[in-house]
Amino acid sequence: MALLPFDDRDGFIWFDGKLVPWRDAKLHVLSHGLHYGSCVFEGERAYGGEIFKCTEHSRRFKTSAELLDFEIPYSVEELDAAKRAVVKANGKPDCYVRPVAWRGSEMMAVAAQNATIHVAIASWEWPSMFDAAVRMKGIRLDIAEFRRPDPQTAPCRSKAAGLYMICTISKHKAERKGYADALMLDWQGRVAECTGANVFFTRDGALHTPIADCFLDGITRRTVIDLAKKRGMEVQERRIMPDELPSFNECFICGTGAEVTPVAEIGPHRFTPGNISRTLIEDYAAAVRPHA
Question: What is the mean pLDDT of the chain?
């Protein structure tokens, strides 16, 4: 099946303060964000026309930029309104929403204090990655060679484009080997996250998840923790070593794209998707569509 390229679609993109035809939303090849990674973004979903945790994403978007030493020239309220305008203009109430901000082309060197900051917001259809029946079978994960960096070497709390370079490489390698994704360790060899999603494990009815201090503390991750606690589940945010993996019963990943997706394998380790995963899938679905 031929891919529909992202630069040749119908619809609208919010670009530097106004809605423009999709194909007209362009930047110059000498934009600083392309050459030096001075770019931040968000990944969000709208369900029934409502963007889930819209304001929380806008706040993180602005914080990500601040960590890269630039300021997004729009308020949280303006960003929220722009995202909703894009979803409405494109006429797809169930969609993925992508805000992105980057340094422009005024300066082409490591330093770019005087570069203009550009902001764009797009939305497009992106169904759930798996239907309910397939999802409960669990996906297969490889173990990545690259590790999440020491937080003293990178702005790990920022959703910055450059931090995803090793994620793309790791996911490509995993998919070539027949896996859906890859589990990444941190710089000290502890369990961290997947290439675009956080990870949880279960044992004796409790949830265990790595401390998010060298990778993104996902908004979906925090949502799942809140949902689990509302159910009375114990949630342990702690250091998890790879040699603990055989001791866990269930495993699942979560993120805007993945939502809540059970895992059946991580390399040589096997898990059985069960009641906790199913419960949190259902609770998350109810949270994102509260009026369904």
Answer: 96
